[in-house]
Design goal:
By secondary structure, the protein is of the alpha+beta class. It has 9 helices and 6 strands.
Length: 372
């Protein structure tokens, strides 16, 4: 037994004028919504260019009487051509999207290579110069030359020698120049001053030795600092050379990646797109299309309201007896386009005259058709 599948597309309609609950013949005599009172509901469907058969059915839904008018569309050539074009162009569009992704990837890799090349060029121009310190900062207590401490002992030494000279020359008993009172005062002064002067000399000498020791320590410390700085420069040069090498290795990796990207013929998304496109086979073989217009009437039965316009697409060869598009307000556009075509006695779903209408349908029909 032949299997059929159906696709219901429910198109919500803008609020239209209405009428009260009644039989089918009452609805048929009411003005057609959106027709500016130019025709009745029955006249809108009578001898329509696209309706091979029209049926009317009244039913109750939640205490409200509604009428479903079904139009069996008899000319589907333009719709089939449109859907066939979708089948034929789907792979090409998928290929173009893949090529765009590939082009973007190639550009990003090329830009990465350019940036790496700039970094390599900049890095190779950088130099590391070691300038040894010639002296330590002058923060220590010995701010003079150590020999100056020796010079500072000259004055006290001279004073000691002078005192010794005068005491020895003029204060020898029995000498012609001996003067007892003077010599006593001289010896007293000598005895008081010499120890003090000798203490100063000793202090200067100690300072001189300490200064020489610090200077020796400073030389050792300066040498250690310069050796450390030299090692730091060598380590910086080594790390910098390693950085350049890593940049060059990254360039090689990017170049290999670029070659692969240029030769790439597919990616995961392209595979997904082609697998989905393969399921489009037979999309254009629409067996039938029914247009269903759901009416209700206002309480006084003087105006009609179109609540929804449903498009029922049917294909052969599917296990499911039908499938429908829900909810009603999920369509990209409302049913006023269809109603307008009906009133003007134009073909419904006429992809030749209104290709934009069918393009809007694509995003609804194709995903559901692929799922089935």
């Amino acid at each position: 037994m032949r299997k059929h599948s159906y696709l219901w597309l429910t198109l919500p309609v803008l609020a239209l004028t209405g009428c009260q609950p009644s039989e089918v013949d009452v609805l048929q005599k009411l003005p057609m919504p959106m027709s500016n009172q130019q025709m009745t509901v029955a006249a809108a469907f009578a001898d329509h260019v696209n309706c091979g058969k029209v049926s009317w059915k009244a039913y109750d839904e939640r205490t409200v009487t509604k009428v479903k008018v079904t139009c069996e569309v008899k000319d589907l050539d333009n719709l089939r051509k449109h859907l066939q074009a979708l089948e034929q162009t789907a792979d090409q569009q998928a290929l173009e999207r893949f090529q765009q992704r590939q082009k973007r990837t190639v550009h990003e890799i090329q830009r990465s290579i350019e940036i790496l090349a700039e970094r390599i060029d900049t890095a190779k121009k950088k130099t590391f110069e070691f300038k040894p310190l010639e002296a330590l900062p002058k923060y220590d207590r010995y701010r003079m030359n150590c020999d100056e401490y020796g010079e500072m002992t000259r004055n006290p030494r001279e004073r000691i020698n002078r005192n010794e000279y005068y005491v020895g020359k003029f204060c020898t008993e029995g000498s012609a120049t001996y003067h007892k009172e003077f010599c006593e005062r001289a010896r007293q002064r000598y005895n008081e001053e010499v120890p003090r002067l000798q203490a100063r000399i000793d202090n200067y000498l100690r300072e001189q030795e300490a200064c020489k020791k610090q200077r020796a320590d400073d030389r050792d410390r300066l040498q250690a600092i310069n050796e450390e700085r030299a090692n730091q420069v060598k380590e910086a040069e080594r790390r910098h050379a390693e950085l350049i090498k890593n940049y060059e290795l990254e360039v090689e990796r990017k170049e290999a990646e670029l070659e692969v990207a240029r030769e790439l013929t597919t990616d995961s998304q392209y595979d997904v797109d082609r697998a989905a496109n393969a399921k489009l086979a037979g999309l254009h073989k629409v067996k039938s299309l029914e247009m269903q217009f759901i009416f209700r009437m206002t309480v006084d039965k003087k105006e009609a309201i179109i609540e929804a316009v449903n498009s029922k697409f049917t294909w052969d060869g599917y296990d499911a007896p039908h499938f429908s598009h829900q909810p009603m307000n999920a369509m990209i556009y409302d049913g006023t386009d269809i109603i307008s075509s009906l009133i003007r006695n134009q073909k419904l779903w006429n992809c030749g005259d209104s290709p934009n209408l069918c393009r809007k349908l694509d995003n609804t029909v194709i995903p559901i058709y692929i799922q089935q």
